[in-house]
Design brief:
Layout lengths: L12 E4 L2 E4 L2 H10 L40 H12 L8 E9 L9 H9 L2 E2 L17 E7 L9 E4 L12 H4 L9 H12 L18 E5 L11 E6 L3 E9 L4 H6 L2 H11 L3 E2 L3 E3 L5 E6 L2 E11 L3 H10 L8 E5 L2 H4 L1 H6 L4 E5 L1 H15 L7 E5 L8 E5 L7 E6 L3 E8 L2 E8 L3 H12 L4 H9 L8 E2 H5 L13 E3 L7 H6 L2 H27 L3 E5 L7 H14 L5 E5 L5 H10 L4
Helix pairs in contact: 1-2, 2-3, 11-18, 12-16, 13-16, 16-17
Length: 591
């Protein structure tokens, strides 16, 4: 989109701060793309103007407006726009900004403005004050884009970022003409020097930035709020012990201008995720759960839900590397134990930093958000009426308009139980190691099944009473004194002490008994927690309940029966994805 500008008359100038800054149409396009509210909010830093527009290793002492006709616009303005592209969500305090460019190769080979824009567009802060590096093509040589300035987050941390050079075929203009000076005289050490001496010390001890002049390409001042829009793509990841859950926001309101400027790696990722329902032999996109026409952070689009086994996580990281994901983001928000387990792989293989989030925080935020937006016009929550009667059982919507207090039972590989009193007030009450992972693991041992779906299918055909010892097997009927019905399980797998009964059971019976054992234990613990916390609404979530109607109906009946109708078991359509949704919401908050 950028062209060499030295052959045409400059457009009218407009005052910005104390200098007259010339805005070419390409500059205005870049500003629009960067979503800077008004160019009039930008101004150059007068004390640093001698450092702006360095050419051929020499400082330009003239005012900003007197730069060479080849540029005619302050690199500070251009740099601010490029920085905004890279860090749209950052809300900085007013302060200094350095864009330092250096590389290997002749200075006349430098970045064109298009290359600079592209480099900034793929840059991202890693939040800890260190610079990251990306590489151009062999023809271009190595290039760096360094963005260094005071941090803008709640902690005011320093930040730095780096991006890649212009793509092959991108219009490039000589560095001398643009005043960006990318030749060998631009030393990377200058940027590090300024970061260490000027930004890394308390205000009283700061030394003037002139010390780092040898490598400074652009110094300017920022004085605006960043747009509250993060750079696409938007992902949230929940890496569990058995399954990885991923949510992806697909923007549907992309303008023609945005689509034209969109980089190929972003197009490739979006096409791959949205045009397939299966990824390899194990990855699945749950199309029936897709949330359509969702407004998120001011953008309209669809929210996709994808899952795959945790043991395939290395392949996922490698795919991200192959699709050059790190050129779009350097930070991936993830929750679950796998966020810690796979952190090193993300860093070394995928060139990505994991922002590790608390899984219970993400779970609560995710479920409250999804319930607030609904399910494509339908209710997110539901319950079962007449759960014990296969013919009369009905799945009915439930309006969770008054969610608090709420007992949240998350059934994954293990089980965690939370008492939620408000969106910001919740606690973990207890948990158990006997969860979905226990059910699947025991089924693999007892039946030889290889998938969770196969285990559930076998359980649906089995008879657990051939495996479990019931109250009536001991008392000949009900134990009326303590109100125990004859059909209640007295001892899970109790009949397997008998050789004759072991020989009579099928694999399906064993799978059914395993499912009943795990579900009964979870229901019993949930009931006791609800009574102790004085909570009547209990919502069960987690991937153990995915396509697991048997367990859901059993939980619904058990809670209703043993509480004499005081407790209601609730379920959710997106049962296993709330942690990933919470991670996505946190991604959009990263300063």
């Amino acid at each position: 989109m950028w062209r060499e500008m030295g052959t045409r008359a400059p457009p009218p100038t407009r005052p910005l701060g104390g200098a007259a800054i010339t805005l070419w149409p390409e500059h205005r396009l870049l500003l629009r793309r960067a979503r800077i509210p008004s160019p009039a909010t930008l101004r150059t830093a007068p004390a640093w103007e001698p450092l702006i527009g360095r050419r051929g290793g020499r400082s330009a002492s003239s005012p900003v407006a007197d730069w060479t006709p080849g540029l005619r616009a302050a690199p500070g303005l251009l740099g601010l726009a490029c920085c905004a592209l890279a860090q749209r969500k950052r809300r900085p305090a007013e302060g200094a900004l350095l864009i330092g460019l250096d590389g290997r190769g002749g200075s006349d080979e430098g970045f064109g403005a298009g290359g600079l824009a592209r480099a900034a567009a793929v840059a991202a802060a890693d939040g800890n004050g260190t610079a990251r590096r990306a590489h151009g093509t062999p023809r271009q040589g190595r290039r760096h884009l360094r963005l260094i300035g005071p941090g803008a987050g709640a902690q005011g941390a320093r930040w730095a970022a780096a991006g890649a050079a212009a793509a092959p075929g991108e219009q490039r203009v000589g560095a001398r003409r643009w005043g960006l000076g990318l030749g060998g005289q631009r030393k990377a050490g200058a940027a590090r020097l300024l970061q260490r001496r000027y930004l890394g010390l308390p205000p009283a001890r700061r030394k003037p930035p002139e010390e780092a002049a040898a490598g400074v390409s652009v110094l300017a001042e920022w004085n605006w709020r960043w747009s509250p829009l993060s750079v696409f793509p938007w992902f949230g990841l929940d890496i569990g012990g058995t399954l990885v859950k991923l949510v992806y926001f697909e923007p549907k309101d992309i303008t023609a201008e945005e689509e034209e400027e969109e980089v190929e790696s972003l197009k490739s990722i979006r096409k791959y995720l949205t045009s397939n329902v299966a990824y390899g032999s194990t990855g699945i996109r749950d199309v029936h759960l897709e949330l359509k026409d969702l407004t998120l952070c001011g953008r309209k689009g669809n929210l996709h839900f994808i899952r795959f086994p945790t043991h395939d996580m290395p392949a996922f990281i490698q795919m991200g590397r192959d699709k050059n994901f790190s050129s779009l983001h350097t930070v991936f928000c993830a929750t679950g134990g796998g966020a810690y387990k796979f952190e090193q792989d993300f860093r070394t293989i995928g060139d990505l930093q994991l922002c590790k989030l608390d899984e219970l925080d993400c779970l609560v935020k995710g479920i409250l958000y999804i319930d607030s937006v609904g399910f494509n016009g339908r209710s997110q929550c539901y319950y079962f009426e007449n759960p014990a009667d296969s013919e009369k059982c009905q799945k009915l919507p439930f309006d969770l308009k008054n969610p608090y207090p709420l007992l949240l039972v998350n059934i994954g590989s293990g089980v965690s139980i939370l008492a939620v009193y408000s969106k910001d007030n919740y606690k973990r009450v207890t948990g158990t190691s006997l969860g979905g992972g226990t059910f699947f693991g025991l089924c693999c041992l007892l039946t030889g099944c290889t998938t969770f779906e196969e285990a559930l299918e076998m359980a649906s055909r089995g008879d657990s009473t051939k495996v479990d010892k019931l109250v009536r097997d001991i008392y000949g009927g009900d134990y009326e004194r303590f109100g125990l019905p004859g059909w209640a399980v007295a001892s899970s797998f109790g009949n397997m002490m008998s050789k004759e009964k072991r020989e009579a059971v099928s694999k399906e019976d064993l799978a059914r008994a395993t499912l009943i054992t795990i579900t009964n234990n979870i229901g019993s613990i949930a009931r006791m927690c609800a009574l102790n916390e004085n909570i009547n609404q209990v919502i069960f979530v987690g991937n153990f309940l995915r396509i697991n109607t048997i367990a859901m109906r059993l939980l619904a009946y058990a809670l209703d029966y043993w509480s004499k109708g005081q407790l209601k078991a609730l379920f959710s359509e997106h049962e296993g994805y709330f942690g990933a949704v919470g991670a996505l919401l946190e991604l959009l908050k990263i300063p």
